[in-house]
Write a structure and sequence with these properties.
Layout lengths: L17 H10 L6 H8 L2 H12 L11 H10 L6 H10 L6 H10 L4 H8 L10 H6 L6 H13 L1 H12 L33 H8 L4 H14 L3 H13 L3 H10 L7 H12 L5 H10 L7 H11 L5 H11 L17 H13 L6 H7 L6 H11 L9 H12 L4 H17 L46
Helix pairs in contact: 1-3, 4-6, 5-6, 9-10, 11-12, 12-14, 13-14, 14-16, 15-16, 16-17, 16-18, 17-18, 18-19, 19-21, 20-21, 21-23, 22-23
């Protein structure tokens, strides 16, 4: 029988052995935030044995990469035993050695030379690796290092001269932060963040949903909203929605149950709760999102209007509107495209895309210049930009977005491609950008319907419902 892993609440971190805390983080069972870092960095002598045990173990099955945290630890607390881990990190980072890793090696000095010289001779290193640079930065005088530099100069005089200057100066000025205070470690991490429950298998998500820690239950409910529910999970989520002592948790669980509203018992339970006078605003917000596909029903429509009239909950009403895909709500979004409430503005941008409000393309384009809203605006622009929608023409739509948005990074390109696949699906075509390899991309539209139902199987063949796959 598989033993359930321990789930640690943030207030307990200080009392958890460092190796167990790191294992939990690597499983995705806690968030990488200041609370986690304090448990490791504020008592380094106590944490060191556990950090070493974790760092030197087999990390091939980790869900979350913790190499950066460990490098930071050994940068501040150099010990010879960390050398195998640091060498492996250099092997992984060979073509882009981080400053923190350089400083960690400098802390070991002479002890690192042999290992790095051996690494330099490995045949599988990337062609443009930085291992010679790392060796030159060690701040160690050694004839073998000078030989490496002279060998580099013979092949690339400019690079070799740079390495020689580095070597003779004792290391780059940029790497002289060896004595930096622990507080600098926290700069790249949030003060608090929920565990990344969405990356976990459903069984573990449900363990979080049953946790006594409110943060765990809320994170689990949010993950289940994004990833969908198996039939086995529906009852657990329904029970939490009906009985959790925290209204925010109940609300997000009601929203997650939207994945199951084709089950009459679930939709009836949600509608009944929506009608109860004692139902809180948090629950109402979750319920209208979960029931968005039934926005034509009077109780749902009335609740959407009620929450829209409340500035504190307007963003949730707008989210329910666009999730309904009911173009009757299209008029609600343009007035909020510059709303001072960022939550409202974000939903207005998304809504203009999903409901195809092409009259607002210029205002969506302006949001492409704002880093806070660029990703949402890209997806919305791709959904609303006019053009023929078919597999043979979708690349043209992509080029239209690129002309307006400029260079797209990987995440931005994926957002645009997902939006264009969504447009194809709404017109009865299979997706192009995230299709199965053997999809017929130039197939004619499905004859039975020009629109795939949100609860129908996704035509891409994933086995998921459309709204949790290409329609997400």
């Amino acid at each position: 029988m598989i033993k359930d892993p321990a789930l640690y609440a943030a207030e307990d971190y200080a009392n958890v052995p460092a190796v167990e805390l790191l294992r939990a983080a690597a499983r995705g069972h806690l968030g990488l935030d200041h609370r986690f870092l304090r448990a490791l960095f504020e008592n380094p002598a106590d944490a060191l044995p556990g950090v070493l045990e974790f760092a030197l173990g087999d990390r091939s099955m980790d869900r979350v990469y913790l190499g950066d945290v460990l490098i930071q630890f050994f940068r501040l607390h150099p010990v010879p035993e960390s050398l195998p881990f640091l060498v492996e990190s250099a092997r992984v980072e060979a073509d882009d050695i981080s400053e923190n890793l350089i400083i960690a090696f400098r802390g070991l000095g002479d002890l690192a030379v042999d290992a790095l010289l051996d690494l330099l001779e490995e045949p599988d290193l990337p062609e443009d690796h930085d291992i010679a640079f790392l060796i030159a930065c060690l701040g160690v005088r050694d004839d073998r290092i000078r030989t490496v530099i002279e060998r580099t100069r013979a092949m690339d005089p400019e690079e070799g001269d740079a390495l020689l200057e580095m070597y003779e100066s004792g290391g780059s000025a940029d790497t002289e932060a060896d004595g930096e205070e622990v507080s600098g470690v926290y700069a790249d991490y949030p003060q608090s963040v929920a565990p990344p429950v969405a990356i976990l298998p459903e069984r573990e998500r449900l363990l979080f949903l049953a946790s006594p820690a409110e943060e765990h239950r809320l994170a689990a409910a949010a993950a289940l909203l994004e990833t969908g529910l198996s039939p086995e999970a529906v009852q657990a989520v329904l029970q939490t929605a009906q009985n959790d002592p925290v209204e925010r948790v109940r609300g997000v669980c009601w929203a997650a149950l939207g994945d199951a509203i084709d089950d009459p018992s679930i939709s009836q339970a949600m509608l009944a709760r929506l009608k109860e006078p004692a139902t809180t605003r948090s629950e109402q917000a979750g319920l209208i999102i979960g029931l968005a596909e039934k926005a034509e029903e009077p109780p749902v429509a009335a609740a959407i209007e009620t929450l829209y009239a409340d500035p504190e909950w307007r963003h949730k009403a707008l989210e329910a509107m666009w999730r309904s895909l009911d173009r009757g709500y299209a008029r609600y979004f343009p007035p909020h495209l510059e709303d001072p409430d960022r939550r409202v503005r974000r939903q207005a941008i998304i809504g203009c895309g999903y409901l195809g409000v092409s009259s607002e393309l210029e205002r969506l384009r302006r949001h492409l210049e704002d880093p806070l809203f660029r990703l949402d605006a890209l997806g919305a622009y791709a959904l609303a930009v006019p053009g023929d929608v078919s597999p043979s023409r979708v690349q043209g739509l992509l080029r239209k977005v690129e002309r307006v948005a400029g260079d797209l990074d990987i995440e931005e390109l994926r957002s645009v491609q997902l939006a264009l696949d969504h447009r194809l699906m709404l017109h009865g075509y299979p997706p192009v950008f995230f299709a199965e390899e053997d999809d017929e991309l130039d197939a004619e539209p499905a004859a039975a319907s020009s629109k795939t139902g949100q609860n129908e199987p996704c035509p891409c063949g994933s086995g998921k419902k459309y709204k949790k796959c290409c329609g997400a």
